[in-house]
Design brief:
By secondary structure, the protein is an alpha+beta fold. It is 23% helix and 25% strand. It has three domains: 75 residues, 2-Layer Sandwich (Uridine Diphospho-n-acetylenolpyruvylglucosamine Reductase, domain 2); 124 residues, Uridine Diphospho-n-acetylenolpyruvylglucosamine Reductase, domain 3 (2-Layer Sandwich), CATH 3.30.465.10; 82 residues, UDP-N-acetylenolpyruvoylglucosamine reductase, C-terminal domain (Uridine Diphospho-n-acetylenolpyruvylglucosamine Reductase, domain 1, Alpha-Beta Complex), CATH 3.90.78.10. It has six helices and 19 strands. The strands form six sheets. The protein has a five-stranded antiparallel beta sheet. A four-stranded mixed beta sheet has the order 1-2-5-3, with no helix packed on it. A hairpin with a 2-residue loop joins strand 16 and strand 17. Helix 2 packs antiparallel against helix 4. The relative contact order is 0.14.
């Protein structure tokens, strides 16, 4: 009698079930702002903090983990992402106000936090309206806009590490600097306590409107983009260096440097992740050649390259 053939073990077979949702070969291009990229080998959406901690404890140490927010400041490569991609769902998007204290889940969009603060008369967080991401991403990179950064309003944060341990730390312990933090790489932020000031709702609403108007006038907010592509070098502005290097409107395949704000890359409709990343690298090369300055990526690039050719820049 012939022995039954064993079915090869897949990654999802090695993972703890959890209470949240596990999905194999999840299409990430549908949830990134660039609308490009390959699939996640497995996508996990935890039900809550305890579910996340239990999942992390039970996940084998050799399985790569990647945390993803709303897919704004992110470029997923065409070959997809190996291991597990974790996306924080509804339970992590709560925003609660207590006086001038704001407790926001790491999955809460920055704009939602800003609008909730307006509705409760909490000022000082209007800058969040100008950041296309979530509170978790803002903590990881000390996101900022219009003269303020998350470190200016952060009191404390909570995170879960790879072993499932929960950490609650003060803002000063995170080593927040321009577009970076000293938080361990394996920490997944779950909540943040922010603090604003009591102000008139109408005054806050006026400042929010000004931020929104400024973004619309200076940034390609209606395009498939990922926010600011490169960090500002010390004493300089990335967009000015890019413009001076003749890169405004530069194209590669379906990717283009925005004519409106040349520190933004745009998917004009048919770009691949390779087009976008290749165009970004060409911009870096031309800026270095023209000014001697090496631009650092602000957009996070994850995943594997696919064996695919893209057109040259023009």
């Amino acid at each position: 009698m012939m022995a039954a053939q064993r079915t090869p073990e897949t990654l999802i077979d090695r993972l703890p079930p959890g209470r949240g949702r596990l999905t194999e070969n999840a299409d990430l291009s549908k949830v990134t702002w660039f609308r490009v990229g390959g699939p996640a080998e497995v996508l996990f959406r935890p039900e809550d903090k305890d579910d996340l901690a239990d999942f992390l404890r039970g996940t084998p140490a050799d399985v790569p983990l990647t945390v993803m927010g709303v897919g704004s400041n992110l470029l997923v490569r065409d070959g997809g992402v190996e291991g597990v991609v974790i996306r924080l769902g509804r339970e992590f998007a709560r925003v609660e106000i207590d006086g001038t204290d704001v407790r926001a889940g790491a999955g809460a969009p920055d704009v939602n936090v800003a609008l909730t603060c307006r509705d409760h008369g909490v000022g000082g967080l209007e800058f969040l309206r100008g950041i296309p991401g979530t509170i978790g991403g803002a903590l990881r990179m000390n996101a900022g806009a219009y003269g303020r950064e998350i470190k200016d309003v952060l009191v404390e944060a909570e995170a879960v590490d790879r072993s499932g341990n929960v950490h609650r730390v003060q803002a000063a312990d995170l080593g927040l600097e321009y577009r970076k933090s000293a938080a361990p790489e394996d920490w997944i932020f779950t909540t943040a306590l922010l603090r604003g000031t009591a102000e008139d709702k109408a005054v806050i609403a006026k400042r929010l409107a000004a931020v929104s108007e400024a973004r619309s006038e200076t940034q390609p907010v209606k395009s498939r983009t990922g926010g600011s592509t490169f960090k500002n070098p010390p004493g300089a502005k990335a967009w000015e260096l890019i413009d001076a290097a003749g890169c405004r409107g530069l194209k590669r395949g379906g990717a283009m440097v925005s004519e409106q704000h040349c520190n933004f890359l745009i998917n004009t409709g048919g770009a691949t992740a390779a087009d976008l990343e290749g165009l970004g690298e060409e911009v870096r090369r031309r800026v270095e050649q023209a000014s001697g300055v090496v631009l650092d990526w602000e957009i996070k690039r994850i995943g594997r390259h696919a064996e695919r050719k893209s057109e040259g820049a023009s």
